[in-house]
Amino acid sequence: MLDALFKELRCDTSARLLVAPSGRITNLNKRAEELFGYSHDELIDQSINLLIPQRFHSHDALRNAFNSDPIERRLADGRNFYGLRKDGAELLIDIGLIPAITESGTFTVVVIREIGEAADETARNS
Question: Average pLDDT over the chain, rounded to whole?
Fold first, then answer.
């Protein structure tokens, strides 16, 4: 069911990841491959932490909170959000979360739009 839904989203211009309750990536679209510099096969079954700078790896509690109260939301609390490309470059991103509740648990469709590359250390610490 989720794979069929995700195939429909593969042509979207936003990067999209399907993330299991465990935090593992189970599917992604072509734009996510392009944005982060990984192939589809490189990201499948990897932790979402692979795409997040190390200093933000404490987001596991936020993922657990989302899974216990799965409502669609945009992450915009005044903080900047960053992604991490395969080449180590950081990019400033906008993130939306959409729950996909199944018998196997609450999966999350993560919608990512690139805002820009992180300019410097000052910007990354904001």
Answer: 82
